[in-house]
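Hi V.,

You were right to ask for the full record rather than a summary. Here it is.
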Amino acid sequence: MPSKEDYDQMIKEVGRFLTGHDDNIIKDLQTKMQLASENWEFERASDYRDLLEAIATLRTKQRVMAQDMQDRDVFGYAVDKGWMSIQVFFVRQGKLIERKSQLLPYYGEAEEDFLTFLGQFYRNSQHLIPKEVLLPKQIDAQAAAVLVGAKMVQPQRGEKKQLVQLAIKNARVSLHQKFNLLEKDVRQTHGAVENLGSQLGIGKLNRIEAFDNSNIMGASPVSAMVVFLDGRASRRDYRKYKIKTVVGPDDYASMREVIFRRYRRVKKEGLPEPDLIIIDGGQGQVNAALESLEMLGMAHIPVAGLQKNDKHQTHELLFGKPLKVVTLARNSQEFFLLQRIQDEVHRFAITFHRQVRTKNTFSSRLDGIEGLGPKRKQKLMKRFKSLAKIAEASVADISETGIPYQVAERVHMVLNENTSD
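Predicted structure:
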């Protein structure tokens, strides 16, 4: 933790900021944060990061001058190099009272991943749904309203538009700052990989493959695999799986199926075997994975489980025969590596699940329309994003996607008949 002298210096710097001398202070704090990270002083680096975020919040407060005293949340995001940074401003009674930021990987369409985040954000009981949510213009506001159950606004002018633009700008700055820390952290994972392998008694972990299941009450069950090579995510090796043999919400059976499918292919095609398989789950999921490996004659591959606590945070590592908790220091690089792996596979799985669920809903409403095959459905999805948008479109608009006019007429008729029921 920072010394008393460090805290006193921070207080002086905040005082200088309040008197208007902020640019030099921010540069100085960024330098100190990077230096602390390079020296493996992660708690100190975290304190500097928190101070930078506090200053950013103060800057934002100075620009908020809402007149209607209404409660609203303001969202902005930025993407780069496969990562998404999301900023949320909480405005209550016309004043910005808090700011949150989150950095996460994204896959496919940024807008779709943002909607996934939005739905999860408001499922958290700590995030109360306000009267109004301000969104960037590229987001499907209608889909967002369905997910959240609040009024969605995409401002075109004035103060509200400035707030959204400010959230987007802060997201870009946050993304840039966190890339610096992330790159240094990733380089340090080489030591973490060696230490983790040593603690498990299996040597250096050059290749780690991690799995997670995703479903809602058994609907559209999927699983996903991510791969880490020498401690770094290898996205080209990621794989998605639609569960084929399981009926209903059965995580154990789903894990048994996907592990069997994955390593049957590894064995058949001579693909590289992992040094460690990580299962996002506890004893039941790990045992299911071990059963499939045993059936394939590949029980020599080590399997570990990552359990979460009631706050859905990485809690403990299970390993061995029988499974036991492997004690890892919460501030160790090994623990941070496992957190990254678990967060990555969970994010990849739920994003894929949302895509599958959306496509299933989309397809079911359009099934049976003469002349509308899979490729034409894809054209409609790409152009309109949602069934509601297609229903609102004219026959001419639908036809402009390359669908014959008569087929477009049938699509328009079916969707509007369904809408009116």
